[in-house]
Amino acid sequence: MLLTLAWGSLFFPGLFAFCTWALRRSRPEWTDIDCVMISTRLVSSVQAVLATGSGIVVIRSCNNVISDS
């Protein structure tokens, strides 16, 4: 569990930093606020897709999600 937390603590800020950097280089006419806003939305979307995927895995692997039987 701690390894997952460590990877998430590196992955999401790294993705944010990379997206911000890439947007600043590819769209120099955009302001810093625009780049940060788009990067935040992209990282939130990736996090939502991964959370949905993990929820689907949990639901499909359990017969009864509440009691985990």
TrEMBL record:
Domain of life: Eukaryota
Annotated keywords: Signal
Signal sequence region: 1-17
Protein name, per record: TLC domain containing 3A
Gene this chain is encoded by: TLCD3A
